[in-house]
User: Fold this.
Amino acid sequence: MDKTDELKAFRKQFYVNEEIIYFDGNSLGFMSKRAESALESLKESWKTFAIDGWTEGKHPWFYFSEKLGSMSATLVGAKSEEVIVTGSTTTNLHQLAATFFRPAGKRTKILADELNFPSDIYALKSQLQLRGLDPDGHLIRVKSSDGNTLKTNDIIEQMTDNVALVVLPSVLYRSGQILDMKKLTKEAHKRNILIGFDLCHSVGAIPHHLSEWGVDFAFWCTYKYLNGGPGSVGALYVNEKHFNKEPGLAGWFSSSKESQFDMEHSLIKAADAGAYQIGTPHIFSAALLLGSLEIFQEAGIERIRRKSLHLTGYFMALIEKELSAFDFHISNPSNDNERGGHVYLEHPEAARISKALKANGIIPDFRNPNGIRLAPVALYNTFEEVWRAVQMLKTIMEEKSYLKYENKRGVIA
Ligand SMILES: *Cc1c(COP(=O)(O)O)cnc(C)c1O
Assistant:
């Protein structure tokens, strides 16, 4: 399978540590050589042009966020002008909630889910509080019947006429379940509700068609599958039908480029997604993304998805074959339409098994209370690595070497 892998050439473009098997690219992707040279190139423009780097050099900083947004657009199925690289996942959610959450009459609630990433929930609660609404009564969280996944119909049932806004993940960070964004968008709109998605765990792993589905807004980070580096600048999408909406959180980078330096006290906002920027872009934290996005353009998200499904499918088959004697449960959806980019294995001793894997050079990530996430990334992982990891896991279980460790998570897990 490695021999016939159509993406195998890309592994060489990354700094792969051959001593380990890295399955944590869904938390922090590997550094690529292209990302490094993009950073070098942006550093050069500072050295050479100082202040004039805003408009001179290979990648003028003044237009850099728009350029990266445009390069990201195909990954989410949007028009170039609907995407901007700015902020972080959480600050972008704040911006989008400030812009799109317009409680009126009895429509005063936000619909989310009980499996969502904590940062998104904290942000939504504080947005409610800022409007003087009690988060306990106004943030509805759809329940999961199995603790790992959500049912489309359970979400739709909660789209009542008290709901003004729906915010959901595209792919759940634990179980890797893909939500049916197309259907959820259609159902929300039937009920006059706006809907947005957090794409942190899907961008760079699966294709999206945000414009075609009519999704109102989306936001994501770029350091997971997109390999933008620790703290790399995030991104947001706003459907063009909303380009008339004033940014909820304005700043001078919300301006149209032409009027920004008029220094007037009344904002003339940009006519596209650029309007939802706030302040001066973090150029070096965005620079690495330039190199990384070039790789995605060459590899193509459809090919990446095909290999990713193949890798996770192989992983699940091996786990079933080799580890059936142990108490593992594969808790990600098994069918291709619903499975994101990682495998989610549950085991009562997951914390210490993760530690034993790490001590043996296999890097998973543990998710409280009992989950092991394993992300074989299409751009740089191999089928052989999947095979070796399962053999190692089997050895650890047979020899019970995980008992050496405490069944407790580390500070970062
Ligand atoms: C990674 C992740 C975040 C992180 O938000 P930051 O603002 O980038 O720290 C938020 N939400 C989800 C669903 C994530 O997976």
About this structure: Residues 88-90, 117, 119-120, 169, 173, 198, 200-201, 221, 234 surround pyridoxal-5'-phosphate (CB under 6 Å). The longest helix spans residues 301-322. The chain has a mean pLDDT of 97.
